[in-house]
Design goal:
The protein contains ten helices and 14 strands. By secondary structure, it is α/β, with parallel strands linked by helices. A six-stranded parallel beta sheet has the order 3-2-1-4-5-6, sandwiched between helices. The longest helix has 18 residues. The chain is globular and about 60 Å long.
């Protein structure tokens, strides 16, 4: 019998999925972790390998390779399956290929009685989160994309390096599409309790031009990594674990996930990266930041690009 046991089903045991599974076990997040992949032998091998590390984990986790049938009793299904981004490709280039794959996956999961929360990581994540919502028929609050959680983490890390402070004390957000039209919300950046504007008053030490370059490196980070090692997976794996913990532990914490807008920021019927309060029910609420005019214009462009890109495949 399954009673008060957190079960997470991971669909897709590629580099991103396995990075997520490895981090999940190292942090002792869930009692049960099920690996599902179209390549059943790969899922079996990964489960076997992960099990052998359990004696060194902070808490026991039951791990096995399974099927969509295991989703019936799952609290959370995390999907990392799909075709990865290749050198020279944008995330939006993947939309048609991965939309077809996702429709089949989501139907298979729902046919087995799943009634939990979806967490999507496959690119283009905003569009595939929307596809998952439509195909599943679940409430929008229970379908979440990784959104700009990783972009925000990259942003905080690079700013922490620039200001020489702990990244956990840098409060900053990247919002919009997880891709080329994302934007930094400079108007809400703070280092500890100090607003960014105060630092910029010292023009000898800090310059807006240098901060703009930091954002460019954040936006293009995936391209730089892919060109060097073929794919990104550690950062997104840890980002997914952070969202998972927020859900399973009912944290009510604020993360920049891909959430459904229903009038917030002046837009409807789109999933996009925005700060949202995450708890055991999924997205409790979308936090609507007061954006500067230039930030709002960039956000408008991001929404426009997403809607135009997903229109032909929905």
């Amino acid at each position: 019998m399954k009673q008060n046991i957190n079960r997470v089903v991971l669909v897709g045991t590629g580099a991103v999925g396995c990075s997520y599974a490895y981090a999940m076990i190292n942090q002792g997040v869930a009692e049960e972790l099920v690996l599902v992949d179209v390549n059943e032998a790969k899922a079996e091998g990964e489960a076997m390998d992960l099990k052998h590390g359990i004696p060194f984990a902070p808490s026991p986790t039951k791990i096995w390779s399974g099927s969509y049938a295991d989703c019936k009793d799952a609290d959370l299904v995390v999907i990392t399956a799909g075709l990865p981004q290749k050198p020279g490709e944008t995330r939006l280039d993947l939309v048609e290929k991965n939309t077809k794959i996702f429709k089949e996956i989501v139907r298979g999961i729902m046919d087995n009685g799943f009634d939990g929360i979806f967490l999507i990581a496959t690119n283009p994540v905003d569009i595939l989160t929307y596809v998952t919502w439509k195909e599943s028929g679940l409430p929008k609050e229970r379908v979440i994309g990784s959104g700009t959680t990783l972009d925000t983490a990259r942003f905080r890390y690079m700013l922490s390096d620039y200001f020489d402070v702990d990244a956990r004390n840098v409060h900053a957000y990247i919002i919009g599409e997880h891709g080329d039209t994302e934007l930094p919300v400079w108007s809400h950046v703070s280092v500890g309790v100090q607003k960014l504007e105060k630092f910029l008053k010292d023009e000898e030490l800090y310059k807006q031009e240098e901060l703009d370059e930091i954002f460019t490196n954040v936006r293009d980070a995936a391209y730089h990594i892919i060109n060097r090692k073929g794919a990104t997976y550690y950062g997104i794996g840890m980002s997914l674990v952070r969202v998972t913990k927020a859900i399973l532990n009912n944290e009510n914490c604020i993360l920049t996930v891909s959430a459904h807008l229903d009038g917030q920021y002046g837009h409807k019927d789109v999933y996009i990266g925005v700060p949202a309060v995450i708890n055991r029910n999924g997205v409790r609420e979308v936090m609507e930041l007061e954006l500067r005019d230039d930030e709002q214009q960039k956000f408008e462009r991001s929404v426009k690009v997403l809607k135009e890109t997903m229109a032909p495949v929905l």
